[in-house]
Design a protein that fits this description.
about 300 residues; alpha+beta; 2 domains; 4-stranded antiparallel sheet; 15 strands; about 20% strand
């Protein structure tokens, strides 16, 4: 069954431009213009890798919505989210960094962030934003979020297992290899990678500049706070982010592209969230939950391998 997304644009020229952008990233794309009845507006149909994106030249959105045809805001954001995904990925140049907390640190929760150890990572891409509800809908045709209908807010209430289903479908659509970040990749990116200034939080020592945290207001639209050195938003706070690793105690030896223990009971989460105090939102803070767990403060961010 094909999924249909509605994206409204102002003119034919922009529809053609969008077609060109889509054609760059997807294996199978067709473009055609058609009418749906005597009094209908012209539509421009993009058929992309098994799902449809309808681009309509609409002059009266209110009239169209009154007829019960579409939710203009929702499906415009849904369509844009899948089309913009590739351009939202940021290249993180690999390097060596000190992962974890200094062995002399006595801050709360220090024990599971120690010992500090040297890690070497290869290049990878990471999304500048947490996965939004709009992007989830574009792949899964549903929205599990408890903080629902905020389409530019991060998707929440998703378990590690359900995220794997999402990623599998996304990779089938895009013909690319998206995945969750490893815990080491996540911390390196949160630190700012090769451009790190050594901040306590991702992008600043002042948590209020970079994070939504310790409140009852729920998650917020992505990208509203200050980004970090790599241009990544909301690595601190907003929503806790799943990593690919099983949780385990750090080893003191040097490591190259670590992927965590071979097995375990809990999957790693990073970044803190809108319910957590500042001490739980540092770049080195670690959390872990069962892979089937899901709640209103749990989401994720995508990484993509370099071919």
């Amino acid at each position: 069954m094909r999924r249909i997304y509605i994206l409204f644009v102002s003119d034919f020229a922009f529809a053609k431009y969008l077609y060109g952008q889509v054609y760059r990233y997807f294996e199978f794309v067709n473009f055609s213009e058609f009418n749906c009845g005597r009094n209908s507006l012209p539509l421009f149909l993009l058929t992309v890798s098994g799902f449809n994106v309808i681009i309509g030249q609409v002059k009266n959105n209110a009239k169209l919505q009154a007829a019960g045809s579409v939710d203009v805001q929702k499906y415009s954001l849904v369509a844009r989210s899948i089309l913009n995904l590739d351009s939202d990925m940021v290249l993180v140049k690999g390097g060596t960094f000190e992962m974890g907390l200094s062995d002399t640190s006595t801050v709360e929760g220090a024990a599971n962030q120690q010992p500090m150890h040297q890690v070497e990572l290869s290049n990878f891409y990471i999304s500048k934003y947490e996965v939004t509800q709009a992007l989830w809908i574009s792949v899964m045709d549903s929205n599990p979020s408890l903080h629902a209908e905020c389409y530019l807010c991060p998707v929440d209430n998703v378990s590690w297992d359900k995220v794997q289903v999402f990623i599998g479908k996304l990779n089938k659509i895009t013909k690319k290899h998206y995945r969750l970040p490893t815990e080491a990749e996540w911390e390196y990116a949160a630190d700012g990678g090769a451009y790190s200034h050594g901040y306590l939080y991702s992008g600043s020592n002042d948590i209020d500049k970079v994070a939504w945290y310790y409140s009852l207001s729920g998650s917020h639209q992505v990208g509203l706070k200050k980004p970090n050195e790599l241009g990544l938003f909301d690595m601190t706070g907003n929503i806790s982010e799943w990593c690919s690793d099983w949780y385990g105690h750090y080893l003191p030896n040097e490591q190259s592209n670590p992927t965590g223990p071979a097995m375990g009971m809990l999957k790693v989460q990073r970044g803190g969230n809108w319910l957590v105090r500042d001490e739980g939102c540092t770049n080195t803070s670690r959390g872990a939950l069962p892979q089937g767990f899901h709640d209103k403060s749990t989401g994720f961010r995508l990484v993509r391998d370099i071919p």
